[in-house]
Amino acid sequence: MNPSSGVSTTTGAPARPFAVLVVGTRNVCRSPAAERLLRARLGEHGDVVILSAGTEATADGDLPAPLVEHLGSVGADADAHEARELDPELVRSADVVLTATRQERAAVVRTVPSAIRRTFTLRELARVARALGPEVLPEGDVAGRLSALVDAAARHRTPTSPRAAGDDDLLDPYGRDEAAYATAFDQVLAAVEGIAETVRPELAAEHPAPGHDERPLPAVRAGRSVLRTVALAALVSLLLLVVAGTTGALVAVDRLDSRVQRFPDPFADLPTRPPAPAPPAAGSTTEPALTVLVLGASADDAGGDGASGDAAGPGGAAGTDVVLLAHVAADRRSAQVVALPPDLHVGVPGSEPAPLRSAAALGGPPGAVQAVEQLTGVRVDHVALTDAETFARVTETLGGVDLDVTDDVVVRGRVAVPTGRHRLTGGLALAWMQDTDDDAARAERGQLWLRAILDRLGHDDVRSDPTTWLALLDVLSGSVAVDEGLDRGAMLGLLTSLRTLRPGDVQVVTAPTTAGTAADGSPTVVPDPGPFAALMDALRSDTLDEHLAGAPG
User: Fold this and answer.
1) pLDDT tens-digit profile of 477-527?
2) How far is CA 485 from CA 164, 233, 381, 490, in A?
């Protein structure tokens, strides 16, 4: 690990070529241009493969004449092109996804939520690459260095954020004059050169880079753990609300609005929904209670293959390993997180009953909303997607958290954490949580870790340090995508109402379940009827705080 950059110095020959997917709208202008330029700069040895696709591609899409001319002028391939429609399998098989604009980036994340950390706009990755510089990447082949760049960029996209969010988008020249094509092509070429010359610095001498806004990166405290965790991922969004409420609504919104990714309305086409709660009485200062469905997606391991595992299903959130309902009370004095086991057997819209994770895999965020609302009778107000590494980064920003370790934590054959109470770094906390094969134990450790983070947030040295809260906000906001209904105005109203909510006001509970049997006789996990119904009744009536206070244990 390079200690000043946080970039892994470990490379190795990949089991297969490193796969790059470029996504545009119609897949006839910007995305094929980037595909061909990237292939010319990085794909000549066969260890990097580049494809392109479009969110609205048509089968007969041809390259426009101005684009053919510009590609030819730099010696890039300008042969016949067949537009390709974006589909989930293309995203799942890609090691990095580069999009023309933030709109296509949101479409990719909506299609496969687990791709959130390896999806960038083309200009976004180029900006981070230039800020990092070629010297921080490990020695090795093109595929290994490109992989290390993508890994580092997932952590560094926030510190290098542009002055205006639109600076990360490419101009769409489709249907416009030749000047627009020239501008768009120059933008694509500059971005490709920024990436290529970081991965292959020898190219810089051959082709001086176009001008760019270069900002140095601050030092990174710790690198990425090679361990995978999924049990904490979806709690990030509620922690984001707590942190954002503490930093101040206006400051938080300014930072959040340009960093948090958004995806299209998941509620628009749902056939039936639970009733909305009654609005507050006229003249009341009370806000309506708020419930957010949070889908936690697996993050890809460093050097992984970019796929999401055997749970992958057609349509999307193959890496959805945690499903939670984050509830903020109407009086904004308390919040609760209800964990729904992803293997909970539910009715899946358009399919046979299946584990809850299948609802997200088959139907994306809308399918997950429909399944959860039918299961719980609780109306969901917003949806958030996140990944698996954020809690380790939060822990590092806090300087570690205090956890009770009941058994030695062994990493690579050595005791990394002995039994006892310790202040653990993010990497060691990940190792502790993963150091068990029992899913229930891992989930319990995840909740203990969250509690430790919330406790640490309440310590005087953290609570009184505004720079720490701003750093936490940057970490969290770079790891969450929300539905487009949570726009700037809605976000400002929500965060203003949360100004008194503090870490100690958050409770975490797992929904009561029991063993069941599927129609084919296989064992399943199902709701424990009485306790589950009581919990959901309390959530619907906004009495969850009182319900949990009266619960045994």
Assistant:
1) 666 778 888 877 777 677 666 666 676 777 878 899 998 887 777 888 899
2) 21, 22, 9, 7
